[in-house]
Amino acid sequence: xxxxxxxxxxxxxxxxxxxxxxxxxxxxxxxxxxxxxxxxxxxxxxxxxxxxxxxxxxxxxxxxxxxxxxxxxxxxxxxxxxxxxxxx
Length: 88
Fold this sequence. Notes:
Elements: E1 3-9, E2 12-17, E3 20-29, E4 35-42, E5 59-62, H1 65-71, E6 77-79
Parallel strand pairs: 1-6
Antiparallel strand pairs: 1-2, 2-3, 3-4, 4-5
């Protein structure tokens, strides 16, 4: 199984598994703007034995984005937009 993170906006990613969107990775920020933590979460709820590895529950918290990508087997971050693709 191969994961990728596709950036949607600052602190927000689609979680891709073998070419399919299966969840998201999002940054939680305090009201004053400080990064609190990151969450990797699946779109579909299911019993632990049916969740894709390494998930044992639908949502997992992390201290950093690096920790998320490492947990997902070194998942690369894919930038969805290049400068020429941005809306003008």
